[in-house]
Amino acid sequence: MATTIAISTAIRDRIKEFGMKGETYDEILERLLTSAEERQLRDILMSTKGCITIDEARARAEKKWQK
């Protein structure tokens, strides 16, 4: 089932720049979304936010065992 969305000419032209010969807008957008999802997942998985180094984890573990 197809649907129509309103986008500006500028956005349409930007989408076209990512297209390959004979590719539909649907195919271009599918490829771009897949790429964005993969990057988002990679960014989440590779984030160091809230992480500590292995050395720090070992030091904490040793400190706990010494108590």
Provide structural commentary.
By secondary structure, the protein is mostly helical. The protein has one domain (9-66). The protein contains three helices and no strands. The chain has helices spanning 9-18, 25-46, 54-66. The mean pLDDT is 93.
Please render the helix and strand layout as text.
Elements: H1 9-18, H2 25-46, H3 54-66
Low-confidence segments? none
Summarize the helix and strand pattern as letters: HHH
- Class computed from helices, strands and strand pairing: mainly alpha
Largest sheet composition: none
Q: Give the helix level as a range of percent.
A: 55-70%
Total helix count?
Answer: 3
- The end-to-end distance, rounded to whole angstroms, is 65 Å
Domains counted in the coordinates: how many?
A: 1
Mean pLDDT: 93
| Strand segment count | 0
Name the overall outline.
rod-shaped
Strand percentage: under 5%
List keywords for this structure.
67 residues, 3 helices, mainly alpha
Provide a quick synopsis of the model:
By secondary structure, the chain is mainly alpha-helical. The protein is 67% helix and 0% strand. The protein has one domain (9-66).
